[in-house]
Specification:
Layout: H1 2-11, H2 25-34, H3 41-44, H4 64-73, H5 79-89, H6 94-108, E1 123-128, H7 141-158, E2 162-164, E3 168-169, H8 174-183, H9 187-203, E4 215-216, H10 220-235, E5 239-249, E6 254-256, E7 261-262, E8 265-266, E9 274-283, H11 289-294, H12 303-313, E10 316-326, E11 332-341, E12 352-355, H13 362-365, H14 368-381, H15 386-390, E13 398-407, E14 412-419, E15 430-433, H16 439-447, E16 456-457, E17 475-476, H17 493-507, E18 510-515, E19 521-522, E20 535-538, E21 544-546, H18 576-579, E22 580-582, E23 589-592, H19 600-603, H20 606-609, H21 622-628, E24 631-636, H22 643-657, E25 667-672, E26 676-677, E27 681-686, E28 692-693, E29 705-709, E30 714-717, E31 720-723, E32 730-734, H23 748-755, H24 757-766, E33 774-775, H25 778-795, H26 818-836, H27 840-854, H28 862-872, H29 877-886, H30 903-906, E34 910-917, E35 920-928, H31 933-942, H32 944-950, E36 955-961, E37 965-970, H33 972-979
Parallel strand pairs: 1-2, 1-24, 3-4, 12-14, 24-25, 26-33, 34-37
Antiparallel strand pairs: 5-6, 5-9, 7-8, 9-19, 10-11, 10-13, 10-18, 12-15, 13-14, 16-17, 20-21, 20-23, 22-23, 27-28, 27-29, 27-32, 30-31, 31-32, 34-35, 36-37
Bound molecules: ligand ANZ.
Length: 980
């Protein structure tokens, strides 16, 4: 294949175009060739030996940030660089310092938030979304959020706040159970070992968690309260059982939530999923829909998350209308079909009705002639997911039911169809179809030759309703009838809608109605590794009875066999002696509920338990809750925008209603960290002739191959990356989500081993804006590591020839100069502002600037250096503690006051200073307000205008008022010379 391409390229010499010819696609390629923007394959084939999957702009992030870091640390790779970076790695003893301070913090319980605290002090509750302790251990994505919250926690402690910064485990869930099924290892054992690994990893990163508050959702002392909350929901009618069609996955043996099903298969493992009616526990989140919606407005959350919640709740205002069913002979039947519409104004345009295939009335209204066809249609529809059914671009299908509905507004009988673009689970499961004004109805009406009747005309005139639907608002036409006496012609859509609702309510044909897309929450799993649901069923009546609260926790029985049964009967049903029980009131035999709670349960309220983790009497003590609530900053991934954050808000509101919590909302501020993608890859286009083509010249009509270029063959040119050998060839960059299958996963343990935890922390913060996605870069981490080494050498000094690090080589005496104070206080100001604004990357830049400046100073006064160490400490706590101790402090700096910037040194203090020569103003110079007389005079002598008056003159006297004026008096002799 290669030879063929080469031969083709060699044989086909393509001449350059004449400059006057406009570039056709072909000519553009020719031009490229002549401008050396394409390279024949033979020259470069050895450069492109690594091929890798393509990365698109959508999952790819600009490498700007890493360029920046790269310029701190980035020479070309290769042996030289390898050696250089190894030296850097040895440049300060992080491998000794880090474990030493981690031990110190642990032994001294430095970060413990005692129960008895001075509550007159302000509080700061900063929380991470607690992890699921997976078998894979920590991923570099975890420390991104955890470092950010740790920096905030450390800053706030030093600013005098009582800080709550806890960590725990969301440890029930499918992976441990799947693993148990495959290996026979009990999920408890897997979970404990995973938790231990996570804990060790987190400790190795120096996070300042209060480990005395650690909780796991799988501990009976914890899930006792999850079960207690369930009982409160049950008491208030917010938990109920219902026969609902569920997504049943036979392979996983469980019901899945809609969002766990993607294109008809399970998100985990891609197993087929079918719809099956099952009796399930449901939580009535819909009862809180309005409050969940309204209270969003005041939250300091990302707008995108709030919008996703609004859409998820999906409130719409409209009306329910009743239509009498009429048979083929025009005879009215007993049945009525209620439809939900957001456009009651279009009632005169309804030319047919649609019921969903699962509509309860369908089998009773269908005519005998149509029954077989309708049944077949229902069967096909039952195999489709809601998503598939409602996709706009899918061709609409349906079957006539053989009966009609009478439109009370005009007395007309319109056909009733069954079609799967109407969902059984939304509204009433039936619609009045208005093809002139709804796109889906329009498509359907055209396909099945159903009349289209326009009733709303756009304000700007005519509209052809047969070509497409007009879905906007406008003026009503064709909308009056003597049968009903309703006349809305000439009204605006809004006025018409109000009038129709009035009429519906007066004539009892319907009423105003608010609808939500939000469904009640399916709250049961047919799996073992979850919280048992504290309910029993009395054998003879089947009645469900909550177990008494004093019997909580209802612990999970030990089981050796976790495999789900094919019938859907949960594995817990195998724990026979556990299942068999008696009703404590009647003494009758009963069976325990064998479903368990879904994974989301434990994470709905864990933030409350952290406030009072050991309380055996209450979920959380009132006083503690009142002090710590709400969570001030909650950091986690954007993937939790709806489910977790909505469920937690729902439970919180219920707890508020029953007086357990004092705030309406659990999380004041939510921040989503961006994802970390794998290393940037550089890709070149190759055309079918085997030539490389510059990325800015690709021709859309040609299919190119893409090849990965090794980093050492790439260089930066302006904003782009180009081939080192031929800078005319521009490359594209891409980055993939880290995944095992792509082999681009970075293990934080390896990074800690090689560069230290402080470097990892600093790097993750320096990669780019906290909320943005960013790409991992090994040269980037070397860059920040070098910065830390520079800090170390600045304060401690270079290692002596024996490799030992000296102590206290910094000159610690003396008063700081004005320049030093200004530099320091600007750094304090910036670092504080940037941490508080969660712009951690620019906080680091400010520290880098400080260190660059400090390297130029002859003397480093202790006060300046100590202050800088405190500034550094939230980011690089191990190094900062070590430096602090070497600067002579016997205890941790964790509770030292965080430096405060003195505005006098911060403000830009340059002034325009008038310069007089012999009392006459001859010009101005720009100087620091605190500039010395000598410096001001030197600047004046260098100024092009003033120098004419001063060059070669004898100065008799200088009068200098800082910030106000410089007056230079020349010798009289000079003056004469000047006058001549
Ligand atoms: C008549 C009509 C005329 C409609 C018109 C729209 C435009 P939202 O805003 O999402 O609530 N609808 C109602 N129930 C449905 C169901 N179960 N499955 C599919 N579609 C359903 O949308 C409400 C609109 O979606 C309703 O208003 C109804 O169509 C349709 F010019 O009724 B409308």
């Amino acid at each position: 294949m290669l030879t063929q391409i080469q031969t083709f390229a060699q044989l086909h010499f393509i001449p350059s175009p004449s400059p006057s010819q406009p570039p056709t696609p072909l000519r553009r390629r020719i031009f490229l060739f002549s401008a050396h923007r394409r390279l024949p394959l033979r020259h470069h084939h050895n450069m492109f030996s690594i091929s890798s999957p393509a990365l698109r702009i959508t999952d790819c992030i600009s490498s700007r940030v890493n360029d920046k870091i790269g310029s701190v640390g980035g020479e070309a790779m290769g042996e030289e660089k390898e050696n250089a970076s190894k030296q850097v790695r040895r440049a300060y003893p992080f491998h000794e310092i880090e474990p030493k301070w981690q031990r110190y913090w642990e032994n001294n319980k430095t970060f413990r938030t005692p129960d008895a605290i001075d509550t007159s002090k302000p509080k700061f509750y900063v929380l991470d979304m607690f992890p699921y302790p997976s078998g894979a251990g920590l991923h570099v994505g975890h420390p991104l959020g955890y470092t950010a919250t740790d920096i905030l926690a450390r800053l706030k402690r030093m600013q005098g706040f009582n800080v709550l910064h806890p960590m725990g485990w969301d440890a029930f869930g499918l992976p441990a159970e799947q693993y148990a099924i495959e290996t026979g290892t009990h999920p408890k054992i897997t979970t404990i070992s995973n938790i231990n690994r996570f804990r060790t990893q987190l400790k190795s990163l120096g996070f300042s968690y209060d480990w005395d508050r650690e909780i796991s959702t799988t501990e009976p002392e914890y899930y006792k309260w999850t079960q207690w909350i369930f009982l409160q929901l049950l008491k208030r009618g917010l938990a109920y059982r219902a026969e609902v069609p569920v997504n049943w996955c036979p392979a996983l043996g469980t019901v899945l939530a809609n969002e766990e099903v993607i294109d008809g298969v399970s998100e985990r493992g891609a197993h087929p999923v079918i719809r099956k009616p099952m009796r399930q526990w449901m939580l009535k989140i819909t009862a809180y829909a309005d409050r969940l919606l309204e209270d969003l407005d005041d939250l300091d959350w990302p707008e995108s998350v709030k919008e996703m919640q609004r859409n998820w709740i999906g409130r719409s205002e409209g009306a329910e209308l009743e239509f009498c069913v009429v048979d083929t002979n025009g005879l009215q039947r007993d049945n009525k079909i209620t439809v939900y519409t957001t456009r009651p104004d279009t009632i005169f345009g309804a030319t047919y009705l649609v019921v969903a295939p699962e509509h309860v009335l369908l089998s009773s209204i269908v005519s005998d002639a149509q029954r077989k066809q309708v049944e077949e249609y229902k069967e096909i529809a039952s195999r489709k997911s809601d998503l598939e059914r409602t996709e706009l671009q899918k061709e609409k299908t349906g079957v006539f039911t053989g009966c009609y509905a009478r439109n009370a507004a005009n007395g007309k009988d319109i056909p009733i169809w069954v079609a799967d673009y109407v969902l059984g689970s939304y509204g009433t499961g039936a619609i009045m179809a208005v093809p002139a004004h709804d796109t889906r109805d329009h498509e359907f009406a055209l396909k099945y030759s159903i009349p289209i009747c326009g009733v709303v005309t756009p304000d700007n005139g005519n509209f052809s309703y047969f070509e497409k639907a007009y879905s906007g608002e406008g003026k009503m036409i064709n909308s009056s009838s003597s049968v009903s006496g309703l006349d809305i012609n000439g009204l605006s859509s809004k006025e018409a809608a109000l009038r129709v609702i009035e009429w519906l309510e007066k004539t009892q044909n319907g009423m105003k109605k608010v609808n939500y897309k939000l469904r009640d929450w399916l709250f049961a799993r047919q799996r073992y590794w979850g919280e048992p649901i504290p309910v029993i069923f009395v054998d003879d009546t089947g009645e469900g009875i909550p177990i008494p609260e004093v019997e909580l926790p209802l612990t999970l029985p030990e089981l050796d066999e976790f495999t789900p049964t094919v019938t859907g009967e949960p594995p817990l049903s195998k724990a026979l002696s556990w299942v068999k029980t008696v009703d404590p009131v009647s003494g009758k035999p009963a069976r325990r509920e064998t479903n368990t709670m879904p994974q989301w349960a434990g994470s709905c309220w864990y933030y409350l338990r952290f406030m009072d983790p050991k309380n055996s009497k209450e979920l959380v003590g009132r006083e503690k809750e009142t002090y710590w609530s709400p969570v001030d900053v909650y950091v986690g991934g954007a993937e939790h925008a709806v489910l977790h954050l909505l469920y937690a808000r729902f439970w919180h509101k219920v707890l508020y209603d029953i007086g357990v919590v004092s705030t309406k909302e659990p999380f004041k501020c939510v921040i989503n960290q961006g994802i970390i993608l794998g290393e940037v890859q550089y890709m070149a286009y190759r055309d079918p002739d085997g030539y490389l083509v510059s990325a800015d010249s690709v021709d859309v009509t040609i299919e190119y191959g893409q090849e990965r270029i090794a980093e050492e063959n790439v260089m930066k040119s302006g904003d782009s990356f180009v081939l080192k050998d031929n800078p005319n060839i521009r490359l594209i960059t891409r980055a993939h989500k880290m995944s095992k299958s792509r082999g681009n996963v970075i293990n934080p343990d390896d990074v800690v081993l090689e560069y230290g935890a402080d470097s990892l922390r600093l790097y993750e913060m320096f990669m780019g804006p906290f909320r943005d996605s960013k790409t991992w870069s090994t040269s980037g981490i070397e860059g920040v590591h070098r910065f830390l080494a520079r800090v170390w050498r600045l304060i401690v000094g270079s290692p002596s020839p024996d490799g030992k690090f000296k102590d206290g080589t910094v000159n610690l005496d003396g008063e700081p100069s004005m320049e030093q104070l200004q530099c320091l206080h600007r750094c304090i100001d910036k670092v504080t502002e940037e941490i508080e604004g969660t712009r951690f990357n620019t906080g680091i830049s400010a520290m880098m600037e400080f260190v660059n400046a400090a390297y130029k100073w002859d003397k480093l006064p202790k006060s300046v250096i100590e202050t800088f160490v405190l500034l550094l400490s939230p980011y690089a706590p191990h190094m900062a503690e070590e430096l602090w101790s070497r600067l002579g402090h016997p205890t941790s700096l964790a509770y030292e006051s965080f430096p405060k910037a003195n505005p006098a040194y911060v403000k830009e203090s340059t002034v325009v200073l008038p310069v007089q020569i012999n009392g006459k103003t001859r010009g101005t110079i720009q100087v620091e307000e605190a500039c010395t007389e000598e410096d001001a005079f030197r600047l004046a002598s260098l100024d092009s205008k003033l120098s004419k008056f001063l060059a070669g003159k004898n100065i008799k006297k200088r009068i200098y008022v800082p910030g106000k004026i410089l007056n230079v008096i020349l010798d009289a002799q000079n003056v004469k010379v000047g006058q001549r």
